[in-house]
Amino acid sequence: MTRLRPHISLLLLLLILALLPFLVGLLDGQSPASMLAGEAGRSKFIQGLMIEIFILAIYAVSYDLILGVAGILSFGHAMFFAVGAYATGILLKSAGWSLGPTLIAVVGLGLAQAILFGVVLARVSGITFALVTLGLAYVFDILIKTRELGEYTGGDVGLQGIPRPDFLNPSDERLRFYYLMLVFAALVYLLYRRFVDSPTGRVCIAARENEERARMLGFNTILFKFVALTMASISAALAGMAYALFQPIVSPEVAGLGFTVEGLLMVLMGGIGALSGPMLGAALFKFMDFYFNKWFGESASFMVGAIYVLIVLFLPYGLVGTWRMRRRDMLAGWEELLERWRKMMG
Amino acid sequence: MSIILETRNLRKEFGALVAVDDVSIRVEKGSFHAIIGPNGAGKTTLFNLLSGNLPPTRGHIFYKEQDITRLPAHRMAHIGIGRSFQITNIFPNLTVFENVRLAAQAVGKDNFRLLSPASRFRRYEERAWEVIRQVGLDERAFMLARTLPHGDQRKLELGMLLAPDPELLLLDEPTAGMAAEQVPELMSLIRRVRETGDKTIMLVEHNMNVVMQASDVITVMHQGAVLAEGTPAEIAANEIVQKAYLGGLYT
To answer: Is pLDDT above 70 for A114?
Structure first.
């Protein structure tokens, strides 16, 4: 049991998320049989929203791995995601591949783009690297929108009507898709957490803190950064694949700078380098995006912007980052308060 | 006695400035070899060349008869060369323990164990504790490095240098900025390290007391070039050195 204790909150969260579709259904008076049959209702709607959150959470945490853990400033993260999404759409639709080979191809492409970025990283770093990644992502953005490739990518309109295997069709088999994405997100999180605590991850953190010193200690820092880059690139590409399967439309927006900035906001809101933080940031982002539009209509983006500014101003390390730093102070504060109460009670 | 490190006509130019001017020195294995000279004499640049931080403009560096002139900085620790820095160079937001543990891990073979917790690799932790005790930081092991007082940061710097157990130690002003009463403690520590581990030490230092007491050989640099070399007694008696060094200090 002692081994389980540090994971209690994670297990609790997973349990709640696993039961969530049924809890929502029960509150809504829907029978479990109807839910399992995938009938329309609030439960199915919430599942859809949560699936998008899981996908965005993987996108955000993969951004955090290179940005917050390895300290690599990159503005090309939307491309990591879009490559997976577009590859999935094109291979399933135009090339007529089945899901298995497509999955392998997406992992391969994830590796390939990590190598591309790694080659750049070996030559330039810091803000120069950030600008090169911005350029690379922009080239990709233009490429998928060109008319010449429109036959495959759908140009400005996007890739539509991606065929999906029946067993993963999110409209009929949404609950299955929900659990698949939940497991996927949980696995990525656990894998990352293990990585961050591994000898390799510790060197990534050291290189973020003081790269010259890490090199002088004997670490070829570029190799360690490349490992982080590869993990992030492959997981973002897989998140893109899930997105293409779920929607089943791939809009060119996922390749744009706007989507990179959204990823950055998720990371900053949740807490850079905190892993669980950016995943929470992704959830917050999606909820705000959806409910604010519903409640406030056109002024929603103003509200969302205001919340970003407030978070950055008052919680500079993000939600989870600031929580971790303040927890000890807060516990001490609570104890003091309790002590005062005890005295008052006599 | 064998030569562990040798430079041949080593030269470094920064534009028109010749920072290291055809320096040829030989360091005997097991010796305590000090490099002295006024500010701007090229001592730290020489160290940067030796540790691979800067590529030389010309000339060669040999370590155990191997040409290491073009070896990248991150290889140096692996062949047994360690270096400390004049300006404290640590990982400020990591603990003292993690700073030293990383230094021990660097020369091991487990750097690419992606999915095992670092704490599973006991030998690096044990080595880190050994060194932390040796430099006297065991009570501060879990403090963040940046919160240490300056003198302790210098000890940490030394600990990170010692953790991989290098054969050749390049010490760049280890006592820089230390309170005077802490200097003897640090120097006796360095002397112990050398005696117990059969190490070779190269030292850049401004504190003449330290240099005169500890060194076997002193090389005097002036404006990038070697001005004189000899035992502490020879150097102290050398008139040219007296003139150049004092002149450098007071102009």
So the answer is: yes
* Rounded distance between C-alpha atoms, residue B170 and residue B47, angstroms: 7
CA distance B246 to chain A (A): 34
Report if residue B184 sits inside a domain: yes
In degrees and rounded to multiples of 5, residue A247 shows phi and psi of -65, -50
- Which tokens go with B179? 């309170």
pLDDT digits (tens, 9 = 90+) for A155-192: 888 889 899 888 888 888 899 999 999 999 999 999 99
Angle at B131 between CA B165 and CA B162, to 5 degrees: 30
DSSP-derived letter for residue B20 is E
Express the helix, strand and coil content of chain A in percent, nearest 5 each: 80, 0, 20
Q: What is the CATH number of the domain that holds B40?
A: 3.40.50.300
Q: By the CB < 8 Å criterion, does B62 face chain A?
A: no
Which residue's entry shows tokens 């092991």? B141
pLDDT tens digits, A70-86: 999 999 999 999 999 99
Residue A285, judged by CB atoms within 10 A of its CB (0-12, 13-18, 19+), counts as buried
pLDDT in tens, B148-197: 998 899 999 999 999 999 999 999 998 888 888 888 888 888 888 888 77
Judge: domain A19-314, CATH 1.10.3470: yes
Instruction: Name the one residue in this structure whose structure tokens are 């590859």.
Output: A87
The three-class DSSP label of residue B12 is: strand
CA angle, corner A107, sides to A203 and A121, nearest 5? 40
**Do the domain assignments include residue B224?**
yes
The reply to whether B193 and B231 lie within a common domain is yes
Amino acid identity of residue A179, one-letter, is: Y
Number of structural domains (chain B) is 2
Q: Are strands B26-28 and B3-14 parallel, antiparallel or unpaired?
A: antiparallel
**Residue B85, domain member (yes or no):** no
Kindly report the nearest CA distance between residue B231 and chain A, in angstroms. 31
Which amino acid makes up residue B183?
Answer: V
Together in a domain, B119 and B154:
yes
Confidence of residue A42 (pLDDT cuts 50, 70, 90): confident
Tell me how far CA of residue A66 lies from CA of A60, A235, B240, in angstroms: 10, 12, 56
* Residues in chain B closer than 8 A to A215 (CB atoms): 73-74
DSSP code per residue over A63-127: HHIIIIIS----S-HHHHHHHHHHHHHHHHHTS---HHHHHHHHHHHHHHHHHHHHHHHTT--HH
Q: By the 8 A CB rule, do A276 and A324 touch?
A: no
Residue B114 lies in a domain: yes
Q: Which B residues 142-161 touch A at CB under 8 Å?
A: 160
In this structure, the answer to whether residues B156 and B170 fall within a common structural domain is no
Of A191, A199, A215, the CB nearest to B113: A199
Residue finishing a domain among B164, B180, B197: B164
User: B130 and B246 share a domain?
Assistant: no
Contact between A260 and A99 under an 8 Å Cβ cutoff? The reply is: no
Whether residues B124 and B170 share a domain: the answer is: no
> What's the pLDDT score for residue B56?
95
Q: How far is A236 from chain B (nearest CA, A)?
A: 19
What stretch of H or E contains B203? strand B200-204
Domain termination site, one of B103, B133, B164 = B164
> Are both B15 and B40 inside the same structural domain?
yes
For residue B135, the enclosing domain spans 91-164
Contacts with A200 from chain B: Cβ below 8 Å: 111-114
